[in-house]
Amino acid sequence: MTMKTMSPEREYTLRQLKEIVRIVSAAEGELWSRGRLHSAAFLLDLGGMGCGYQFRYEPFGLVSDEMDVDADVTPIFFDLHEEQRRSEFGSTFSVFTTGEEFRAEGEK
User: Fold this and answer.
1) Phi–psi pair at 56, nearest 5 degrees
2) Closest C-alpha to 7, from 77, 62, 65
3) Contact 30/95 with Cβ under 8 angstroms?
4) 81-86 and 56-58: which strand pairing?
5) What is the mean pLDDT of each run of 10 residues along the chain (108 residues)?
6) Closest-CA residue to 24 (of 105, 100, 104, 107)
7) CA 85/CA 90 separation, integer angstroms
8) pTM to 2 decimal places
9) What is the spatial distance between Cα 92 and Cα 103, in angstroms, rounded to a whole number?
10) What is the pLDDT at residue 50?
């Protein structure tokens, strides 16, 4: 796993980190690829329920550099695991897992 450099201006909040765990948790505890993580967050943003990540479109899909950094930092604070796997074609991809049960906003 490569750590990207964090810009000093970027403010990290536990809410943003927790949102990454909630996205994986809502996907029944397992989400394959950072691209799917970015897509899920983008769709939540469109629906007015996102964390405010900035996205750009690349030829292979949506990308958020801030979210990539947060995905690297989140396992330090929350129950989120990232495993790098190799595809049949030789490229690597991430599999995110969490044991945390999904709870809707405001639910105890």
Assistant:
1) -135, 155
2) 65
3) yes
4) unpaired
5) 50 82 94 95 89 90 93 94 95 94 70
6) 100
7) 9
8) 0.81
9) 31
10) 75
